[in-house]
Amino acid sequence: MSSVMKKCITTDELKKHDKPEDLWISIQGKVYDVSDWLKDHPGGSYPLLSLAGQEVTDAFVAFHPASTRNILDNFFTGYYLKDYSVSEVSKDYRKLVFEFSKMGLFDKEGHIGFVTLVLIAMLFAMIFYGVLFCEGVIVHFICGSLVGIMWIHCGLIGHDAGHYTIMPSSWLNKFVFFLTANCLSGVSIGWWKWNHNAHHIACNNLEYDPDVQYVPFLVVSSKFFNSLTSHFYEKTLNFNSLSRFFVRYQHWTFYPVMCSARLVMVVQSQTMMLTKKNVSRRAGRGQELLGVIVFWSWYSFLVSCLPNWGERIMFVLASLLVTGFQQLQFSLNHLASSVYVGKPIGNDWFEKQTSGTLDISCPHWMDWFHGGTQFQIEHHLFPRLPRCHFRKISPFVKELCRKHNLPYNCSSFFKANEMVIGTLRKAALEARDLTNPKNLVWEAVYTHG
């Protein structure tokens, strides 16, 4: 009888196994030792480290197709979670994932990938033709703007290719990712996966989510004033005098910062690619270097072909300014939403994803403009789902939120801008009060400025 009895451990015992060399997780009550898998995990080590020693079924279901379960037995410890339980929210969430899978939605990517690639090719040809064979400041300004538009669509299709297969085969999918991210955008694939997976796992966590860690230029919460530790960057985000200076004016500088975000992203990703071998290893470091060289070759060539330095600077600024709109869209989805601190918890997946994201309401014919980012809640709950299905599944998500009295945050594009500026203004005033709390006259001017 004892030979068939299940060996069990408690949640508290599971929590003890939260180190890289001793990393256990629970999926549907079965306990797995993924310590040796850490370095080979396709999503990087950070998601596993963030949820180490916890029950992670919802996060696993969100990111992995059913076929992935076939390899789990290789890591099974023989233990089961004694006090394993499933909340009503999680039960309903998993039912939705199952229903969408049964409907085949995760496998039907539509024609967005092909159409976007054709558009990118057309934009690339127009840019080269305009710079090499046309004269005039206006034409070259338009060409610079088209580069920005091309980068936006490269970002959208690269994002899609990073989450699910948009091409008929996996190797072609990887090539599209390589082409749009490395060659055309100059962004490291390894860095993007590392950064983006961390964002999804710890959505709007001030200590774990890199997409809300903009110190010293922007902060969305006064909690940053305590110099929080970034577990993603593995350093303290010091809130010093320089940070206070920038943050005091952040609701004025927000849009200029968004316009420069593309440049910061390229520099950061390429720096990480060159200095952190573990970030670019799975993407292929040599391949990434080749792609980045291709990017700087064509972009530098175009800039050098312009007749003078004035037009060259104009061309570069136009491309950066236009791309800033995409960063603005991403920021609207999160910067005014709920934030939290502390280690991410695996058993409140649905709650944290819905509270930390904001949908942008728009008519059906404007979906092309937002590129799927308007359904951010749906994307965070179902990251493997092609964006062409977001509008279809939105009513199901709303109903589930309504059933469990959870927020389903949705605002117009202009209202979302107002909400973000309001959040930044609030933090700006609190930062000013740290240095001069008694200056009530300046406070009145600053508040209404």
Automatic annotation (TrEMBL):
Q: Which residues cross the membrane?
A: 112-132, 138-159, 171-192, 249-268, 289-309
Q: What is this protein called?
A: Delta-6-desaturase-2
Instruction: Name the GO terms of the biological process aspect.
Output: lipid metabolic process
Enzyme kind, highest EC tier: oxidoreductase
In terms of PANTHER family, this protein maps to: DELTA 8-(E)-SPHINGOLIPID DESATURASE (PTHR19353:SF30), FATTY ACID DESATURASE 2 (PTHR19353)
Pathway note: Lipid metabolism
What broad class describes the main subcellular location of this protein?
membrane
Task: State the compartments where it is located.
Answer: Membrane
Task: Name the SUPFAM superfamilies for this protein.
Answer: Cytochrome b5-like heme/steroid binding domain
Provide the E.C. number(s) assigned to this enzyme.
Answer: 1.14.19.3
State a single Pfam family of this protein. FA_desaturase
- What species does this protein belong to? Buglossoides arvensis (corn gromwell)
Q: Carries keyword Metal-binding?
A: yes
In terms of Gene3D superfamilies, this protein maps to:
Cytochrome b5-like heme/steroid binding domain (3.10.120.10)
Keyword Hydrolase in the entry? The reply is no
One GO cellular component, as annotated: membrane
Domain Cytochrome b5 heme-binding intervals = 6-90
As for membrane topology, the entry says: Multi-pass membrane protein
The record, for SMART domains, names: Cyt-b5
